[in-house]
Amino acid sequence: MMSRLRQLIPKSQKIKIGDIEFDIKPLKFKDLVRIVEMSDKENRSEKEIMEFVIFRTLRDSIPEGEASDEELKEEINNLSAEYIKEIMEVINKVNGLDKKKE
Fold first, then answer.
1. Which domain holds residue 52?
2. For the chain, percent helix, then strand, then coil, each to nearest 5?
3. 3-28 confidence digits (pLDDT tens)
């Protein structure tokens, strides 16, 4: 049985880049904690945090049998800026980070 909090969990969103469809899932709480740790304790750059966010999101979308962590990181590093921008926009939307502050 699930609590009412379940209703607050964002839904995944399907996107198509080229001919490839991805099911982009929201980041988990533990991923958000890791992002805070990276910026506060580890003094990581925004670039490193963005790499982590993209990797975690795509890792949830692409099974490990299709690509190892290292292979996936290498493939992400070889994506064009156009695709990275599109992926980040969807990540922001799925996680509710695209809403403007009032």
1. 11-94
2. 55, 10, 35
3. 898 888 878 889 888 788 999 999 99
